[in-house]
Amino acid sequence: MNKDLKPKDKKKFLEKLASEIKSCQKCGLCKTATQAVPGDGHYNADIMFIGEAPGFYEDRDGIPFVGRAGKLLDFLLHQINLARKDIYITNIVKHRPPENRDPTEAEILACQPFLKKQIEIIQPKVIATLGRYAMNYFLPNAKISASHGVEVIMPNYVLYPLYHPAAALRNGTVKKTLILDFLRLPEIVKKVESGEIEAKDQNNENNAQYELLK
Ligand code: URA
Description:
alpha/beta, six-stranded mixed sheet, disordered C terminus, binds uracil
């Protein structure tokens, strides 16, 4: 990981990566999707949100989280005085799976280098996963009911699992929990900035998983 990346280089690398994602044919999803959805937001963001895969509206517009779940996300960001332009948002898989089915392991693996590079370029302080799928990408054995709202120290960032906004739209209790967890995001970023949480813990067992993702 290059800690010395300048913001203008981050922008350039992220744009180059987006064009690689747009022409990717490493799995079958590019044949059924309208277009790739690389990601959206700021190349130098403190917080990176990661969802599962584009849905109908994302596939149509080429931008992540523009449907109903995305509207809830915009509302939540507003509650912490942030907007899309302040954060970065992407998905584990960059093309929409047909009929919004779950992505297969092979599709996730094919897309993995793109997400890894996005994280390396942006170097976010906090990665907030949205939903079980994105959380299990980083923490394969975690259960969302127990791990939501609990920060996990990873080698280069703090992982913060959140419920998926789409799940919150279906269930009022999940929505309340998501709101409460979301409101803690600024506090977690501040803790990383002040060094109270250091996003590097060689003894943390999650390092092993991070190595697998490399
Ligand atoms: N759900 C996701 O996980 N990602 C999107 O981009 C939209 C909905």
